[in-house]
Amino acid sequence: xxxxxxxxxxxxxxxxxxxxxxxxxxxxxxxxxxxxxxxxxxxxxxxxxxxxxxxxxxxxxxxxxxxxxxxxxxxxxxxxxxxxxxxxxxxxxxxxxxxxxxxxxxxxxxxxxxxxxxxxxxxxxxxxxxxxxxxxxxxxxxxxxxxxxxxxxxxxx
Length: 157
Hints:
Mean pLDDT is 82; it is low at 18-23. By secondary structure, the chain is an all-alpha fold. It contains 6 helices and no strands. It is 57% helix and 0% strand. The chain has helices spanning 2-17, 34-44, 63-78, 82-93, 108-131, 142-152. The two termini are 58 Å apart.
C-alpha cells in the first residue's frame, strides 16, 4: 500500500516537473516577416483551440490548433484584414472558436449565466438563513438561569 502511494506521488511530481511548451508553434510554420508573424499571433490569441480547454490556437499543440494557425497564415497571405480572418474562421466553426464571443441573441445565455447563477446563489443563501433552526434552548428554568448568572458574576458558591 505504501509503495503505491509513493509511486503515485512520484508520478504527480514528475508530471509537474516536465516542462510544457510555452508556445506550440513549429518553426517551419512561422512567417519570415516578423510583422506578419506578430499579426498572426495577435489574431490567434483571439481564437480558441476547439479541442483544448480555453487555450488559444497559439498556445495549443493540438493538430486542429495547428490547422487553424495555418488557416490564419493563409488568410494573411491572401491579404485579408484581421476582422475578415476572424469572421472567416467564426463562420466555419461558430462563435465557440472566439475566446470572447460577441453579444448577440445566440450568446445571451452564455453572457447572462454568471449573473443568473450569482442571483440564484444569493437567493438560496437567503432562503437557507431564513429557514435555519433557531438556537436550541438551554433547558434551564428561570430559577436555574438566575442561579447561573449569580455564579458567573462571582457570587459565592
